[in-house]
Amino acid sequence: MRRIIYLLLLIISPLLAFSDDATSALFKKGNAEYAKAQYKEAIASYQKLVDGGYRSVAVYFNLGNAYYKNDDIPSALLYYEKAHKLSPGDEDIRINIQLANLKTTDKLEATPEFFITKWWHGFILACSLGTLAVLSVLLILAGALLLILYRFTQSVTVKKVSFYSALALVFLGLVCIFVAGRQADYFDSHHEAIVFSGSVTIKSAPTLKSKDLFVLHDGTKVDILEHNNDWVKIRLSNGNEGWITATDIREI
């Protein structure tokens, strides 16, 4: 039951963004500052929303754009990636991540995924949780209305059509909820971070005396594997692993 409640809260949270006037006013203030090329002021406005606990694709995306214009690429990538987690199928976010990555130092060749795994991840990440929430509600509501029609109509033909259509719509609504759950599980099990230090040596063990493995630069995205006191074990997209101090990265 706790899992279902958590999932429902996760699904509806994007729909509650900008639900009060103060939040909306601060977002518009940030947009106006950005339009006037006042990027530092826009960052401050958007950052107030984020620091206040708001999780919104629009806020994260605009904050990433403001940092990008301010030539702070690690921060831009951090907030683009946060926006991507909320709306993984958004093409504008994907393109901006690619543009920001062109300005990073480390160019890594990612290890190719097994084709079925790649297809499955593409399927569950095609839509945002907000879109899946709206679709699931509309489909199940339409199915319920058709069942009411089935209950009261006198036409045999209408009864058959409404009954099977209702079953199909409710099934599709449940599929949307299932996909939303798998998407939430995916992000729960994939913890990532952005390197914020200009240049950092990755170690073979969580101690400064361990062997140097390789060097990373700011803006590089890493997978988080485990924590050990002030150290974090990371994996790169090319499969390389090592330890980095927690202060050198910021979790997405």
Account of the protein in words:
By secondary structure, the chain is an alpha+beta fold. 58% of the residues lie in helices and 14% in strands. It has nine helices and seven strands; from the N terminus they run H-H-H-H-H-H-H-H-H-E-E-E-E-E-E-E. It has helices at residues 2-12, 21-35, 39-51, 57-69, 73-86, 91-101, 115-124, 129-152, 156-189, and strands spanning 192-195, 199-203, 212-217, 221-228, 231-235, 241-245, 249-251. The strands form two sheets. Strands 6-5-4-1-7 form a five-stranded antiparallel β-sheet. A two-stranded antiparallel ribbon has the order 2-3. The longest helix is centred in the C-terminal third of the chain and has 34 residues, at 156-189. The model has no long low-confidence stretch (mean pLDDT 89).
Report the helical percentage.
55-70%
Strand content: 5-15%
In DSSP terms (H or I, runs of 4 or more residues), the helix count works out at 9
Quote the average pLDDT: 89
Radius of gyration (CA) equals 22 Å
Order of strands across the main sheet: 6-5-4-1-7
Distance between the termini: 28 Å
Largest sheet, strands/sense/barrel:
5 strands, antiparallel
SSE order, as H and E?
HHHHHHHHHEEEEEEE
Quick one: how many beta strands?
A: 7
Give the arrangement of secondary structure elements.
Layout: H1 2-12, H2 21-35, H3 39-51, H4 57-69, H5 73-86, H6 91-101, H7 115-124, H8 129-152, H9 156-189, E1 192-195, E2 199-203, E3 212-217, E4 221-228, E5 231-235, E6 241-245, E7 249-251
Helix pairs in contact: 2-3, 3-4, 4-5, 5-6, 8-9
